[in-house]
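[09:14] KT: can someone run the structure on this one? pasting the chain below
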Amino acid sequence: MPDMAPSGKVIIEITGLNKWFGSFHVLRDIDLTVREGERIVIAGPSGSGKSTLIRCINGLEEHQKGRVTVDGTELSADLRNIDLLRSEIGMVFQQFNLFPHLTILENCTLAPIRVRGIPRREAEEMAMHFLQKVRIPEQAGKYPAQLSGGQQQRVAIARALCMRPRIMLFDEPTSSLDPEMIKEVLETMIALAGEGMTMLCVTHEMGFARQVANRVIFMDQGQIVEQNAPEAFFGAPRHERTRLFLSQILGR
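[09:31] RB: done, structure tokens below
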């Protein structure tokens, strides 16, 4: 699946991004451009700033310096801008964050009805479409506690897709799953990538990176150390820190 980076328009542009948690400088001078339809995997050791970076893209974390522009709109303290951008960006977290008291169908229709004002019947039809896409339409009437972890994460993906986002962000979506459940979630993400969705995914699943990504980004100590197409990234990493990371995670 990996190919040359799409030549479409720039949909995310990050320049000079800096973020602090108190005195801890978690992101340092990040520059990143993402084009429409691009699939990017962000890798790196724990504490390198990967999750904070993608959380800054939809305003879940506020940056102190630099600019984040999504589809021509700069992310700022203006809450209208943040709400507008979040409606265009789907996000899937490590934890499923499903409402336990709502059925799977209700979890998927809540935001389209309340945020986008979509009529209930239309929202339910759309939810069933995306539950079909993630291959669990038969679970629509159940509650989250009745599903496996892998199924709940697929519901979380379907729920994000119900908002018809232009960009999907994944923050280590398989890290809390048992090994046998990881495959089903990755297969769902691979299918989504095959349809041309713009995707940024923080993950340690390097097989997924090889199969899906246009570009792999390696972060360490709050900086982008290296980025390249998968073949070059895995086959001929340029930076010693990248080589050490790959030797540890791939056992070579």
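[09:33] KT: thanks! Residues 29 and 86 are 24 Å apart (CA to CA).
[09:34] RB: yep, looked fine to me
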